[in-house]
Design a protein that fits this description.
The chain has about 150 residues and is α+β, with helices and mostly antiparallel strands. It is about 20% helix and about 35% strand.
């Protein structure tokens, strides 16, 4: 018997319409990842929907270190911290980074594929740019920069 109960929480991005399940983009509070602050509109957190909501979720998932914060499930987050900051050969970065990013995102029902990776590295930063193919066939070009 576990110390804490195993509670199943429904995914808010999946709408059950009776006979079928419909995937939606959902809604997310807009966040400025540069300042680390929620974006306010009339004194309240601005909420985005559609592809913008997915963009916020993607960035948050990739900038959150997997397994570090107990509030998140073990499926949420990215393990890039395990390799960035080390002086690894470019070939290793170009093979491992896409794998880590894909593993962090592909479990979400809104994402069908993650592809077309570009990895750029500076003295104290690493930028990963990629394309996300969504459940409805849209393609989103997304990028995340890490300080190393």
């Amino acid at each position: 018997m576990a110390l804490f109960p195993d509670i199943s929480v429904p995914n808010p991005n999946i709408v059950n319409t009776g006979s079928s399940t419909q995937i939606t983009y959902g809604r997310e509070p807009d966040f400025d990842f540069t300042t680390g602050e929620f974006i306010l509109q009339d004194g309240k957190p601005k909420v985005v929907d559609g592809p913008d909501a997915l963009r916020v979720w993607i960035t948050k998932a990739l900038l959150t270190t997997r397994y570090r914060w107990p509030i998140y499930s073990s499926a949420f987050g990215c393990e890039l911290e395990d390799i960035i900051g080390f002086d690894l050969p470019r070939a290793v970065l170009e093979s491992e980074i896409p794998r880590f990013v894909r593993e962090a995102l592909i479990y979400d029902d809104r994402i069908e594929d993650v592809k077309d990776f570009v990895v750029e590295r500076g003295a104290d930063w690493l930028k990963v740019t990629f394309t996300v193919v969504t459940f409805d066939g849209q393609t989103l070009r997304q990028g995340v920069t890490y300080n190393v």
